[in-house]
Each structure stands twice: as C-alpha cells, then as structure tokens.
Amino acid sequence: MKKPKLRELKEALTSLFTKPYTTKFPYQPHTPPKRFRGRPKF
Questions:
Q1: Cα(2)–Cα(15) distance, rounded to whole angstroms?
Q2: Is the pTM of this model over 0.85?
Q3: Least reliable range by pLDDT among 5-9, 11-15, 23-27, 31-35
Q4: What CA–CA distance (Å, rounded) separates 17 from 11?
Q5: What is the number of other CB atoms lying within 10 angstroms of the CB of residue 12?
Q6: Biggest alpha carbon distance in the chain?
Q7: Which of 8, 25, 32, 41 is the most exposed place for a label (fewest CB within 10 A)?
Q8: Are 19 and 12 in contact (CB under 8 A)?
C-alpha cells in the first residue's frame, strides 16, 4: 500500500512545480505552428 501512495505524492509534488500545458486563452491568443494549414474537412 505504500508504493501507490508514494507515487501519488511524487506526482502531486512534481505537478506543483511544472508549468501547465494549456495557455490562458483570453489573455494570450492562440499561435498556430508555422506549418499549420487549417482544420481538416472530410
């Protein structure tokens, strides 16, 4: 039972010190990659 708890604790602590993957949308506009050609249509 200790190993899963330690893994959860490690994950929680590392997530406190990493930047989020998302952007703050209304404040920072979306910048698409250089080779982005639009949304695919089927």
A1: 20
A2: no
A3: 23-27
A4: 10
A5: 9
A6: 50
A7: 41
A8: no
